[in-house]
Structure to design on (374 residues):
DNA sequence: ATATCAATATATCAATTTGATATATCTAAT
DNA sequence: ATTAGATATATCAAATTGATATATTGATAT
């Protein structure tokens, strides 16, 4: 497998459940996974091609004859082995890339009202995401006994817990910046 | 300024406080900023070159003659304007890229012990980062009245608050996976 | 019937980022 | 005098991003 291409593992993980086309994969990633990992056609299609060459996945013939072009992929034994091997590796890369925090860090360059507004924009965004995740959570709770759903549930509660922490921080941060709080920031 | 190059803004933000070389900039980014934004020589040096051409920053002559090559950059009036303009833009990109959550999501492919171990690896990593951030926080609290330090303080407390939420989630997640908790996950 | 819009589907491209590596100098300690 | 580590600039292959091109199919409205 390509040394540093993380999209490969996302694809293998998704294919471990069902056969999917590149387009299907994009849709799956844009769903619940999108909260912690991104993918684009620009990396999905090249990854599918090279993993097929390497024998980690295989092309399935389109069942319906004469229909629109559609290339579903199937995970091979080697692919499953590569997926398991990655899951068992200790080394992971976890990265935050928050432009909001960057803007906050350089807040001294503009008026405080600008920074407060940026926090409010972030707050609204978090609230929107939180609403989506809470819907996911409710739906998952109905089927938590089913295979694998406990893992989806845990990623969703991770999102909910962190977003709720963000909201609390937003409240404190706005108070500190509007001067309504003195040093006792922890309280 | 280059349309989609976020490193430009990081550089402009850092240069708004003091003149810096590419190497200095890398060190600054690897410090407190590294928790929410990354940079590498591979994007810093090209960004410095092109921003100098665009007149957003300017090269300062190395003061000591005959000394080692050293190219400190200074922000221009146009550069400051570009920085302020970015800070006032509403649109931001905030992204999580957590391989740990990816592994959790695909946990069904391996034994539960593997997933629990992955959570524990994450937990240890979070604890290490939390210790560093708490040190930053203590140091910043001594100088909170100084210009701009309130902004650094807020980014640090953001990190602390979210990492603490992560730790709580880790405890709950491990309980759920070891079967020590039934449905009442919220409690 | 047919026009139109949204969804399905594959594919490619320029710009950017990442992570590693190459090269060289200076400083401090042994 | 030698070595190790920090300083410093620079480049490269591989990967990612975000946009765009192209074409088909299915559903809705006229």
């Amino acid at each position: 497998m390509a040394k540093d291409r993380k999209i490969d593992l996302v694809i293998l993980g998704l294919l471990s459940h069902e056969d999917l086309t590149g387009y299907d994969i994009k849709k799956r990633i844009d769903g619940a996974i999108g909260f912690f990992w991104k993918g684009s056609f620009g990396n999905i299609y090249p990854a599918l091609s090279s993993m097929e060459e390497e024998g980690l996945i295989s092309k399935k013939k389109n069942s319906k004859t004469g229909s629109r072009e559609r290339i579903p992929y199937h995970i091979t034994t080697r692919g499953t082995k590569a997926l398991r091997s990655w899951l068992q590796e200790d080394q992971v890369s976890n990265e935050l890339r928050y432009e909001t925090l960057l803007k906050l860090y350089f807040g001294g360059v503009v008026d405080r009202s600008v920074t407060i507004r940026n926090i409010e924009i972030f707050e609204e965004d978090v609230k929107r995401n939180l609403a989506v995740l809470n819907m996911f959570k409710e739906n998952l709770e109905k089927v938590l006994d089913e295979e694998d759903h406990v893992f989806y549930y845990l990623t969703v509660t991770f999102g909910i817990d962190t977003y709720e922490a963000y909201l609390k921080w937003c409240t404190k941060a706005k108070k500190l910046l509007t001067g309504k709080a003195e040093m006792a920031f922890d309280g």
Q: What stands out?
A: The domain at 7-88 of chain B is CATH 1.10.10.10 (Arc Repressor Mutant, subunit A). Residues 2-7, 38-43, 46, 67-69 of chain B lie near DNA strand C (CB under 10 Å from a C1'). The mean pLDDT of chain B is 92.
